[in-house]
Specification:
The protein is mainly beta. It contains one helix and eleven strands, in the order αβββββββββββ. The strands form two sheets. Strands 1, 2, 4, 5, 6, 8, 10 and 11 form an eight-stranded antiparallel sheet that branches. A three-stranded antiparallel sheet has the order 3-9-7, with no helix packed on it. β10 and β11 form a beta hairpin. The longest helix has 13 residues.
Length: about 160
């Protein structure tokens, strides 16, 4: 199955389920850069959304789950939370106030924003990502705000 077809099926799955209580990971969110996945996994793209932030703003869990990573990757603070249904949200750059194994509820603090997300059009912003397995998904779909795109089926 192609990446695009699996992405379409994964997004469609959100519509087939009862709503899950997810929320914005920051107060007063403003989307600066939307989800823009590449046509093939190995190509560059934007695998999340960038949200405007104030320096030292609080970053909160978008939904209930377990912290599976809280540390530094390539010099940036990253927090990842595993949720029901095989979903995983990521937040960067964040100075974590949580540790691996911590259980969190929606809205619970994960840490504070750090300066320095490359590619962001503003000096301070949060990169918020969503995955199911190896597939990157639009985190705005958790809030019912993701773009719906019809994609061609392979071989048709």
């Amino acid at each position: 199955m192609s990446f695009l077809l699996s992405l379409l099926l994964a997004v469609t799955t959100f519509a087939d389920r009862p709503p899950v209580p997810f929320r914005w990971p920051m107060a007063s969110p403003h989307v600066l850069r939307r989800f823009d996945p590449p046509p093939e996994r190995w190509l560059s793209g934007h695998r999340g959304v960038d949200l405007a932030a104030r320096p030292s703003a609080g970053v909160r869990a978008a939904g209930a789950g377990t912290v599976v990573f809280a540390g530094r990757v390539a010099g940036r603070g990253v927090v990842s939370v595993a949720h029901a249904g095989g979903l995983r949200t990521t937040y960067e750059p964040v100075a974590a106030s949580v540790s691996r194994g911590d259980r969190v509820v929606a809205g619970e603090p994960l840490g504070t924003i750090e300066i320095g997300h490359a590619g962001c059009p503003e000096p301070v912003c949060l990169h918020w990502g969503l995955r199911r397995g190896d597939d990157y998904l639009d985190p705005l779909a958790l809030l019912g705000l993701g773009r719906v795109r019809l994609l061609p089926l392979e071989g048709r």
